[in-house]
């Protein structure tokens, strides 16, 4: 199950007074489930860029609280700085990282803007993906005239905000206006070159950046720049959409780099940009030795890169996430200049709860000993989910061995697709290992609730039914998920590496045991439900899948035994 992660990168019009900045960031950190990743104040710009992430709903709430606090303690009537701005919270973009689309983030940004306008009385312009007007996708249009021009813009047709007051009141004079929107993740990367020439690095940057380079008459380097009939410079576009780039020399490393901002990683993924910079560098007699990521990056950028390079090698993509990350690091040369630690660079890893104790993080010995202890959890439900995960793992192993088998090169993609499916099933079942124990613990928590009054007894009874229903639904989900293992191991028994056919058979045995074990947990937990219609429906659904699983196991074992004999 992919975690939903939203990033927010608000810019506040204060970069010198750390006490004011801390009051704002304290509001952000006070929202449960939100993690503050970075605070970057600038004295000259008198502006602070803050980065925080978390579940979308919590991030939106933290953004609102930060905008509210900034509007209370920053007075725009006295603000001066080198950066364009129009409000205490100048911009507040929401950025989808995982499990959420840009369109969903845009809807959240509009809802946030509406709330800011109505509850805080701050004029709000919706921009980028959240814009209501095409021209307002451009932040510069929303911020035209900056704070100083706001009083004249608010009540005009083109300057009227999307939300909030249209008059330059005393309160608006203090808070200014805000731009609230949604945009794709901006990935900042530098490509290391085996040259010290800034001019050549710039030439490569001009080759690839979307803006390109000016068209010239005669000599492409020093020739007269061509103009159109309106006197505007005629540009020769670069090859990469959504990319800005320049070349520079870095004293610290003693090399030149192509420095790039990828503003649309959906259109131009990191690996696509890397390959194109390599191609253009090669055309100029230069080699890209590696890549440097500035700041943080979403995990998907590395996973997509790894799968791209594995596909080029005709290698299976169905390997573990940790192995995919290693492939990406080496393929992109992320460790060229210094060690690359995914735990410090990947957003999803940064916000993981490092203190949480998970069963799946235990050693095999530790898990067995924990199960054998006098503690009632983990129990049969978690064990069933784990057996199912092992069944999926065995099917995936056969798929990977088959994909790499000598003489089977033309079939690598077929087996790779099965291996990817197996990895996904395994991942879901490993999640259910801990989820089943968590469901049991929720029931135990109910027993600790007070029951001294009728109200407390009623609340306790309702909570127990809710927890029991969840404890029934989790093993049912295990049954449904394990059912997807059988097509995998059957395909591997029929078409996989014949030397591993017994492994496919064991996978079927493990999957069938997992289904039957999870079924028992559905039945025993459903027994505690007062709503008997719901209980019977849950049990019936699990029993139907279990009956099919037993038939599939028999079919697969017949295939396996026929091949062994």
UniProtKB/TrEMBL annotation:
SUPFAM superfamilies: Formiminotransferase domain of formiminotransferase-cyclodeaminase, Methenyltetrahydrofolate cyclohydrolase-like. Its main location: cytoplasm. GO terms for biological process: L-histidine metabolic process. Its EC number is 2.1.2.5, 4.3.1.4. InterPro entries: Cyclodeamin/CycHdrlase (IPR007044), Formiminotransferase_C (IPR013802), Formiminotransferase_C_sf (IPR037070), Formiminotransferase_cat (IPR004227), Formiminotransferase_N (IPR012886), Formiminotransferase_N_sf (IPR037064), FormiminoTrfase_cat_dom_sf (IPR022384), Formintransfe-cycloase-like_sf (IPR036178). Residues 4-184 form the Formiminotransferase N-terminal subdomain domain. Pathway: Amino-acid degradation; L-histidine degradation into L-glutamate; L-glutamate from N-formimidoyl-L-glutamate (transferase route): step 1/1. It is found in: Cytoplasm, Cytoskeleton, Microtubule organizing center, Centrosome, Centriole; Golgi apparatus. GO terms for cellular component: centriole. One of its GO terms (molecular function) is glutamate formimidoyltransferase activity. Residues 185-350 form the Formiminotransferase C-terminal subdomain domain. Keywords: Cytoplasm, Cytoskeleton, Folate-binding, Golgi apparatus, Histidine metabolism, Lyase, Multifunctional enzyme, Transferase. In the N-terminal section; belongs to the formiminotransferase family. In the C-terminal section; belongs to the cyclodeaminase/cyclohydrolase family. Folate-dependent enzyme, that displays both transferase and deaminase activity. Serves to channel one-carbon units from formiminoglutamate to the folate pool. Homooctamer, including four polyglutamate binding sites. The subunits are arranged as a tetramer of dimers, and form a planar ring-shaped structure. PANTHER family: FORMIMIDOYLTRANSFERASE-CYCLODEAMINASE, FORMIMINOTRANSFERASE-CYCLODEAMINASE. This is Formimidoyltransferase-cyclodeaminase. The gene is ftcD.
């Amino acid at each position: 199950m992919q975690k939903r992660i939203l990033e927010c990168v608000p810019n506040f019009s204060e970069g010198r007074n750390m006490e004011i900045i801390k009051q704002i960031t304290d509001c952000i950190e006070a929202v449960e489930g939100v993690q503050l990743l970075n605070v970057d104040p600038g004295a000259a710009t008198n502006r602070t860029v803050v980065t925080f992430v978390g579940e979308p709903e919590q991030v939106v709430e933290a953004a609102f609280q930060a905008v509210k606090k900034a509007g209370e303690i920053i007075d725009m009537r006295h603000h001066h700085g080198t950066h364009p701005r129009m409000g205490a919270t100048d911009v507040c973009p929401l950025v989808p990282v995982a499990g959420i689309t840009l369109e969903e983030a845009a809807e959240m940004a509009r809802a946030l803007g509406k709330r800011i306008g109505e509850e805080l009385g701050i004029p709000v312009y919706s921009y980028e993906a959240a814009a209501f007007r095409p021209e307002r996708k451009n932040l510069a249009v929303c911020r035209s005239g900056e704070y100083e021009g706001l009083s004249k813009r608010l009540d005009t047709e083109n300057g009227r905000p999307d939300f909030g007051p249209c008059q330059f009141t005393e309160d608006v004079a203090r808070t200014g206006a805000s731009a609230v929107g949604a945009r794709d993740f901006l990935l900042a990367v530098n490509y290391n070159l085996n040259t010290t020439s800034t001019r050549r690095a710039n030439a490569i940057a001009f080759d690839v950046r979307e803006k390109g380079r000016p068209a010239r008459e005669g000599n492409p380097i020093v020739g007269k720049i061509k103009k159109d009939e309106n006197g505007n410079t005629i540009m020769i576009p670069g090859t990469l959409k959504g990319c800005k780039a320049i070349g520079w020399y870095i004293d610290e490393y003693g090399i030149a780099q192509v420095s790039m901002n990828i503003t649309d990683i959906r259109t131009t993924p990191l690996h696509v940009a890397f390959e194109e910079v390599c191609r253009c560098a090669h055309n100029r007699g230069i080699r890209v030795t590696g890549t440097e990521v500035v700041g943080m990056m979403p995990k998907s950028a590395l996973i997509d890169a790894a799968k791209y390079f594995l596909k080029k090698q005709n290698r299976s993509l169905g390997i573990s996430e940790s192995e995919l990350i290693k492939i990406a690091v080496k393929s992109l040369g992320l460790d060229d200049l210094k060690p690359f630690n995914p735990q410090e660079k990947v957003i999803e890893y940064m916000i993981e709860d490092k203190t949480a104790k998970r069963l799946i993080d235990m050693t095999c010995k530790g898990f067995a000993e924990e199960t054998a202890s006098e503690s009632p959890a983990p129990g049969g439900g978690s064990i069933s989910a784990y057996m199912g995960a092992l069944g999926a793992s065995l099917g995936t192993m056969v798929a990977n061995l088959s994909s790499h088998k000598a003489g089977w090169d033309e079939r690598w993609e077929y087996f790779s697709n099965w291996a990817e499916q197996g990895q996904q099933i395994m991942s879901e079942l490993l999640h259910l290992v801990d989820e089943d124990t968590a469901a049991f613990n929720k029931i135990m928590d109910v027993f600790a609730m007070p029951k001294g009054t009728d109200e407390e007894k009623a609340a306790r009874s309702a909570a127990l039914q809710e927890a029991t229903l969840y404890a029934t639904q989790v093993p049912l989900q295990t049954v449904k998920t394990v059912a997807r293992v059988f097509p995998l191991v059957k395909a591997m028994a029929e078409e996989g590496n014949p030397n591993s056919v017994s492994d496919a058979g064991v996978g079927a045995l493990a999957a069938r045991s997992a289904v039957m074990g999870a079924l028992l947990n559905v039945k025993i937990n459903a027994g505690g439900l007062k709503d008997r219609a719901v209980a019977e429906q849950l049990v019936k659904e699990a029993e139907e899948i279990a009956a099919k699983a037993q038939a599939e196991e028999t079919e697969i074992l017949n295939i396996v035994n026929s091949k062994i004999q």
